[in-house]
Design a protein that fits this description.
With 100 residues, the chain is an all-alpha fold. The chain has helices at residues 2-39, 42-73, 75-99. It has a domain at 1-39. It contains three helices and no strands. α2 (42-73) packs across α3. It is flat and about 65 Å long. It starts with a helix and ends with a helix. 0% of the residues are buried.
Amino acid sequence: MANAQNAMNNAANNLNDKKNDWASAGKSVVDRAVSEVKSLNPEDIKRTATELTSKVRDVSGEYYDDAVGYIRRNPVSAGLGLAAVGFLAGSLFSWMRKSA
């Protein structure tokens, strides 16, 4: 009986040690990230944000053009696909609401 109790205590201690290790590892990663962000020059941050914004704008424009082109080439299948997605989303939301 004492062996079982010791095993349970050891398991709890091991779990507590792992939790502390994970917490300290996460804290060190966050601390490093914060220190790196603080060390950046504001002009570098602005330039990087501007470059990222322009790249995202270009990519989203390309995807939008592709989507519009597909809808123009295949209006029936696009409409049926949209209706199917709407039906599935409505079914999911209805099921979630009933189960809550």
